[in-house]
Amino acid sequence: MGNRNKFEEFYHRLKKMFTWSYLKALIVNPGQLPIVAFLIIISELIINIIVVERVPYTEIDWKAYMQECEGFLNGTLDYSKLHGDTGPLVYPAGFVYLYSIFYFLTNQGGNIKLAQYIFIGIYLLQLYFVLRIYIKTKKVPPYVLVITILTSYRIHSIHVLRLFNDPIAVLLLYVSLNFFMDSKWYLGSIFYSLGVSVKMNILLYAPALFFFYLVNLGLKDMVVQLLVCALIQLILGLPFLIGEPYAYLKGSFDLGRVFNHTWTVNYRFLNIETFESKCFHLTLLGIHILLLFIFIPMCIKYFKSYCRLKYVQRQVQPQIDVKNRDNKLKSKLRKDSKKKSVMKQDEKLSKEQEDFLNSFENLLKKSSQKGGKQAHKKSLEIDNEETHYSINFDILSQLFILPMFIVNFIGVVCARSLHYQFYTWYFHSLPYLLWSTNFSTIMRFLILALIELCWNTYPSTNLTSALLHVCHITVIYGVYKKLSNELNIVSKLNA
């Protein structure tokens, strides 16, 4: 009897999966993203294997990375003496250790195919943590992520055809964001600092993270988390800091670095003199600071709401769990009681009694059809006995993720120069940012398509560089407008 019930339950679930309403929900309902996320990862595995096997690998920085790590492995701890074909080593110590591992795994960097398959694994792992954020926040419809993720030529190229360190830094960043969402502060801080140790661009999240610490933890615990981040950097950089600390700090955290105009994606329309001028760099820095001053107060309000609601969750969730356990126990006792009743009925009921029960059941069905509200009320009373109480607290993550994404995005927009591999810094956050605006769906997809076009145009042109800025500014304006409107509504309700 039990196996038959399980089979019927499985059959009904299977039948439901092939209904139009269920299929539609898979496409448009963010709550159905877990299933679609699994399909995205499987599809990405297949796509990336095809790319590796069919598309020729292009050498850009991998050989230089191996040369820099070879110098370290040969005993050189002076950062100023670690060089590759593309110039001096400009990344922190975490990069050196990580790519030294790749050096050994790939036969001194010679086994490119193996390195590409390692990066497939890195990309799939990154996707897992990205999609977990989207699953928790329930912000973006599944079809948007399918279209955006699967169709980006440049992102696949960056990860498996170029073997840059940017994807690894971004992977560690997304791991840290997931830990922060789960309130695992130390692990979040450790992985955030590890991301910074691979590439300095992860510091673009730092202004938002600083206030996230402060609002949620208070001054004392915020200092503790900052010390954790600093300690990771100190431990990783210690071999280089002992001998030549200035060379290490200047090489790995060079804030004054001047980029090569040849590779710029966002400032092709500027001449080289203007592009390399200190005045231009200071202007961008001023714009960056100004935008942070505009957005940070709104981010703090989001963080405060997140903190308050997390407190409510800690208070309410145990009570919900107790209630559900009680309901589950009552349901089990009721089922056991029914089974015993059925067994007794099978033993004792005569044919006349069975006929009476059947007629009584039919009478109840008729009365329920006529009774309307009364019947509905009774059914509710019965259902409540087996109700599973839950509040979707995961959606609170929206109050954390949006500020983090927008602050990083501001840093990207104000960057001195964007090279092609930098696209991975913010690509997976673009759907979230655009679905945090009041733009129409067509407008959102148009912006996504234009940004992808700009990043896929090589070499960049005056038009694509200007168009990229237009798209970026439009996204910032859209997010700002919606944020300010929502906060105004909240302030009026609280007044």
TrEMBL record:
Keyword DNA damage found: no
Enzyme Commission code(s) on record: 2.4.1.258
Protein name (record): dolichyl-P-Man:Man5GlcNAc2-PP-dolichol alpha-1,3-mannosyltransferase
Domain of life of the native organism: Eukaryota
Bilayer-crossing regions: 21-51, 89-105, 117-134, 140-156, 163-181, 187-215, 222-242, 280-300, 399-420, 432-451
Reactions listed under catalytic activity: an alpha-D-Man-(1->2)-alpha-D-Man-(1->2)-alpha-D-Man-(1->3)-[alpha-D-Man-(1->6)]-beta-D-Man-(1->4)-beta-D-GlcNAc-(1->4)-alpha-D-GlcNAc-diphospho-di-trans,poly-cis-dolichol + a di-trans,poly-cis-dolichyl beta-D-mannosyl phosphate = an alpha-D-Man-(1->2)-alpha-D-Man-(1->2)-alpha-D-Man-(1->3)-[alpha-D-Man-(1->3)-alpha-D-Man-(1->6)]-beta-D-Man-(1->4)-beta-D-GlcNAc-(1->4)-alpha-D-GlcNAc-diphospho-di-trans,poly-cis-dolichol + a di-trans,poly-cis-dolichyl phosphate + H(+)
Record key words, sorted: Endoplasmic reticulum, Glycosyltransferase, Membrane, Transferase, Transmembrane, Transmembrane helix
Pathway: Protein modification; protein glycosylation
